Amino acid sequence: LSISLISFENPFLTNKGGKNNGDNHKLGYWEAGFSFTPSVSGKFISENANFAGLINRNYYKNVANKENAAFSNSAGLNIQYHLPSNFFIASGLFIAQRTESLNYNYTITETPRVNNNEITGYTPLPSVSFINVNYNGSNSYHFVEIPLNLGYKQDISSKFELRGQLGMSYLKLFNLNGVKANYTTLEVTNLNDYAFNQSNLAANAKLGVYLNKERFTIGAEPIFNYNLTSLSGQNAAIKVKPYSYGFNISTNYKFKN
């Protein structure tokens, strides 16, 4: 007498032909690791209507057009919570840098006359009092950045997945170095002489490919960051909103059972 045994497989425990990095379990899990982003940073400027009358008639020609984008970087710790679905929440703590290159080369030949927050005219300077401004250098602004992003991931092979993130960042200005030309007098003064906003908000977005293993991930993704608030103070005639775009490299460890 022979008895044939029928074997049943649990579809939730087997993985035919596909990857099993634990991402299809019923529980969420944490990831944490380090990120480094080489980038290029620049800025968008606009006028504050309440104080636009303080802008020197030569400001755009001699100053604004001579302040350009420059290389920058950011680095820090990133942390993510991955939901049982394909969504995840990302945050972290980073040191972010924004920079600009300066190439000032002009001569101040007149002094603006200011009355009630408006330039009412210009007084010519005697030639012996002309001020020659010739400066090449860069400015650096350093922030503590805390992002809060919503992310989505999608498998594209057994080893790789596509991850995208969109969200906002809080940026706390804690250090700056360099000089800047005043938009009224055009004279060059230290950055510390200006009233910059210490707290800033920015939007950020990134999309890239990650090598997805059982216990770690390594990813590379383009990233864009844009200030929603002006870096310059509320009483400044020129509003400054920095931006940066670069290539983020991240490596994370997965904390899960």
Would you kindly provide a written description of the structure presented here, covering whatever features stand out?
This protein is mainly beta and 257 residues long. The protein is 2% helix and 62% strand. It has one helix at 59-62, and strands at 29-47, 67-68, 70-82, 87-108, 110-114, 119-124, 131-155, 160-177, 179-181, 188-190, 199-212, 216-227, 238-255. The two termini are 46 Å apart. The model is unreliable at 1-24 (pLDDT under 50).
Low-confidence stretches: 1-24
Structural category is mainly beta
Main sheet?
Answer: 8 strands, antiparallel, barrel
Task: Please identify the oligomeric state.
Answer: single chain
Describe the structure in brief.
It is elongated, with a radius of gyration of 26 Å. It is built from 1 helix and 13 strands. The protein is mainly β and 257 residues long.
Task: Record keyword descriptors for this entry.
257 residues, mainly beta, eight-stranded antiparallel β-barrel, 1 helix, elongated
